[in-house]
């Protein structure tokens, strides 16, 4: 590996272009390996397949996407078929496609139809020729489950949605739909219904009132008990073993007061617990299976210092694994792990071109708030002890979280001379029910935004940030937080970058996709009742406070976004323009909720880099519009018409 000077600009194309390799997965029998890589002709992510013991150069491209690229693909249990999901230009109406690895035939759409969305794909090694898949083909507002022979395309209705089910689960041994997750409209509680067989009536197992978190993990092998995650009676979610007849707790398997319980690894045959992961600031594991624990110890001993080990794929016999060494200061490196020999062989690096650069470390920090709470955050700094401009990079959701690991945006900013702060503000997930719901009704002018303000003040007080050069930057809810920051704390920020962020919460919720309908009441409880309280909506919606904005704003939007419609960007951009407030607005007609096509992603980030250099003073690579960019400029078009 060669290392260049920290002063060298890392080209945006290397940070934000397609990875050279991504998402490696072993076929269940171990004979084949699939991965995603860009096509030579179009530079679009497609599925490649090779025999596991063949060199990488022997891999064949078996799909032929020419637009947005494939990002979600995996093996069917026959080890001969690849299944993948794909939407159309960002509309999120994902269809499920199947392609035979050996035949060279074209991919087949297993869930055809206009405005049809597929979800909840389930495979099962005991039923290798069948899959279960949900679609809203019958009713656009909810998802029924279908049983599909993916080789013939034959699809039969398995379980019809009564209208209130927002999630389904299958029992592993019978491969029958035996779990239904229901969102109750009256009080936004969540009920888990189960049935003993597909021919039996549904019955309620457990209800989580609004404010509680949890859900079924899996059935135990005896069919009499199940594993459940639950916050009932405690602050964070615990892993429990419960009686399926009564719902009573038989055993508390795992819990930590630091954070919620995370992923659970089970033995697929005995259903015994093997490991549990959890994440306060970094990934941690608790093991019950000593052999599995030893495997992770072996892998951790081979990993670069500070890296985390992730397992992406295992064969059904678990003799071969695909593992990744995840670092914050470099691209992910993938290996094949021989579980018997306890040895690894290198597979590939996701973005090998980044190995030529010295990247910045990411530190986890804990930031106090004005009311005594603690926020887990991640700090990536330019290489200097002096205060620098700061990018407050706000995660979307908002009911999600930031985690440690490689972040191309944070590395981009550090390379240009900025510090980056990513904050798990209240309302973020993973830190218990109180932390999550302290974000309720706290959008914009409340404590969620105060947390971001307090994080900026902390960075200033620590000598990290130059108080006069702060940018608030984010997508989705992060875009909203950008708009809220510029309107409600206008003296704090020198500029803002909003990507697909809502500006009027009432119009946002009025335009959500039909299949989000059952979730709407719960969103109102979290956000506040913008339906019936017009004053409250105006209070928290940046659109109604445009006059307060002092700092320049850059907006990026996908025209096909089904979550945050183009109108959310249009209305605030045109309002700012009319009032003479500096605003730039870039619209991409072939994008949705974010920018999937590399040319558009590089285009927008190039414009953002020039914008940041102008208002924060950092370094910038020369900008040339990528040849395939579809960027449009509604404000300029309006000016031409006028």
TrEMBL record:
The scientific name of the source species is Cylindrotheca closterium
Keyword annotations for this protein? Answer: Hydrolase
- What molecular functions are annotated in GO for this chain? serine-type endopeptidase activity
- Give the UniProt record's GO annotations in the biological process aspect: proteolysis
SUPFAM superfamilies named among the record's database cross-references: alpha/beta-Hydrolases, DPP6 N-terminal domain-like
Chain ranges passing through the membrane: none
Peptidase S9 prolyl oligopeptidase catalytic domain: which residues? 404-618
Give a Pfam family name: Peptidase_S9
Q: What is this protein called?
A: Peptidase S9 prolyl oligopeptidase catalytic domain-containing protein
